[in-house]
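dumping this here before i forget
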Amino acid sequence: MLSRHCILAVFAAVIINFGACKCFVIDSESEFEKSCSSDSMGNRNCSIVVPNNWNFLKFRRWLEKLNGNVKDVRLDLTCLDGGTVFLPWPFRARNLRKIRVKNCLIDGYYSEYNTKTKYTNTVRDMALIDVSILTDINQLIEMNLNDPLEKSSTCGQETNVQFIQRNVSFHFVPTKSPPSLHRLQDGFDTLAEKSKTQPFTCHFEDLLFLEHTGSKSISRIHFDTMTDHSVYPKLKVFNFSSNYLPDLPRQLEQWWKFFPSLRFLDLSNNEIRSFSFDHPDVSLEYLYISLANNNITSVPQDLFSYLSGKTPILINLLGNPIHCDCRVSALSQYLRGLRIIAPHFKDLSNVQCHSPSNLAGRKVRTVNLQSC
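structure:
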């Protein structure tokens, strides 16, 4: 299910930048041996700098040919500027436990999409950082219109404990016949319908940490596809900051239904204007929600009740343009209560007024509201 967000992001992108890419594979088995250290237990730690091009398929075949005990394999790919890796989602290979890709152009990302695989899920730690995914938009539309969904690629690595997507973008191959808006919409609608009716569930039973940050192309149905047929029973940290998110989806308002073990929700540096969170009758030590640096001017009038449930909800509202009229009393009461209930988070109580001008810079909890 996590992988489908990349496809949705392609359809959601407003501006398509077309660029060229040439791929010449220069890796070899001897280079894999040089780049991969091993220990007596059979663990392999592969750290590879890619100046030009690198091919995961060759790496996978090399792992298959290794004799003897091969236990945990860790792969760290860092590309120099212009470096390209051929890397089919969801990066399955013999005993691969960790994969980290940084500063690369990824080619072949969809080359094994919606196809059955002989490889099992083994990855526990996955990270894509500052990467761009090379995409043929016409092939992607055809795939979504005509190919049935396969659990293997739709869900990806269900064994993940940590999954990071940070500053992931798309690089479109040149085409003489770019799709019309109507065809682009058909591809999007077909994928959305498949997501609603898919005949399987993605079980992310071990996922504890999920980061999806720095995206300029979040689909309007992102959270629907993320939760309609997927479960996250142990997810504790969900970082969805810096994604230009304008409104809270219902899945985050009703967080406990979809992420029952959540402890930290980071929605900072978005464009959220208002919020409301359920505070249900479930017992957790607390839920910390960062709404720092959004566009929030006022808060729910029942905000103080967020501290009185079985799971206190601690909200970071620093850096928001709070308007300090009489309605700000709800926030003032909440901030004072937060200092008492969670003194180790007392810095969160230093929220300042942004307007009116005569109160700009004043701490909300110190504003005299007697006249209200």
